[in-house]
């Protein structure tokens, strides 16, 4: 299989992006290209990212009311395919790749190109004083995949059918399979909904979903709120879009938490914001809904 690209979208998180770059440069197989899409962040350049072979930075779309995550991913994949990639790995800017991540994705996509493949992700604790290790092999000491998603052992893969378990933190696709899906729906802006929409769209197009144990990633720590009240408007807007497309609301766990806090209320066709004041929450690791 020739032409393996890694695509990352970023706004801020410059240190996380640089650490990801180092991890990719230290893996058992280097990507043929590394495509970074900067969203409203002129500080991200080829020079600031690093010197991995064929690192390309594109300054992507902007949108009012939130970051255009879906559109930025689509742009990154489009540029990767135009550059000759047959296998495209999408990796969240916060994710450090395991040593075998690129090789494992390239292998499974080459053998099973009809499916979209995801790998287990470990949420790391805060880094030690000297930071996370540069050698991705040393990250295995922290290996503890998130329990809300499938976690096949190394050397194993699982076929999956539940679109609610798909996430865009780490996944890979063949170029032809990506084109069958049409990519992410760009109606979504900001946090939430576009991952599950993409998985449902893939299944509707006859594309399978799967999990591969050797493609492990490690999510660098950063403070977040649980529930993510700072994304409340995004979740309500994107939830309505999802409901219009699929007949049900996503992110039910978060919405129920917002209801408990008095921030949203149930209405005949879903959920709406209340007049409650914004309340503060402790910054704690928040698992996906």
Model description:
- This is Glycosyltransferase, GT2 family.
- GO terms for molecular function: glycosyltransferase activity.
- The chain is an alpha/beta fold.
- It folds into two domains: 216 residues, Spore Coat Polysaccharide Biosynthesis Protein SpsA, Chain A (Alpha-Beta Complex), CATH 3.90.550; 66 residues, no CATH class.
- The chain is 29% helix and 20% strand.
- The protein is built from eight helices and 13 strands.
- Strands 3-2-1-4-9-6-10-8 form an eight-stranded mixed sheet, sandwiched between helices. Strands 5-11-7 form a three-stranded mixed sheet.
- Strand 1, helix 1 and strand 2 form a beta-alpha-beta unit.
- The longest helix is centred in the last third of the chain and has 15 residues.
- It is globular.
- The two termini are 35 Å apart.
- The C terminus is likely disordered.
In short:
This is Glycosyltransferase, GT2 family. The protein is α/β, with parallel strands linked by helices and 289 residues long. The chain is 29% helix and 20% strand.
Task: List its salient traits.
single chain; alpha/beta; Spore Coat Polysaccharide Biosynthesis Protein SpsA, Chain A; 2 domains; 8 helices; 13 strands; disordered C terminus; Glycosyltransferase, GT2 family; glycosyltransferase activity; transferase; glycosyltransferase
Strand content: 15-25%
Which CATH top level class of the largest domain fits? Alpha Beta
Please write the string of helix (H) and strand (E) elements.
EHEHEHEEHEEEEHHEEHHEE
Based on the structure, what is the oligomeric state of the protein chains? single chain
Strand order of the largest sheet: 3-2-1-4-9-6-10-8
The percent of residues in helical segments reads 25-40%
CATH fold name of the largest domain: Spore Coat Polysaccharide Biosynthesis Protein SpsA, Chain A
- At the fourth CATH level, what is the homologous superfamily of the largest domain? Spore Coat Polysaccharide Biosynthesis Protein SpsA, Chain A
Q: How many strands in all?
A: 13
Question: What is the terminal-to-terminal distance?
Answer: 35 Å
**Number of discrete domains:** 2
Low-pLDDT segments, ≥5 res? 279-289
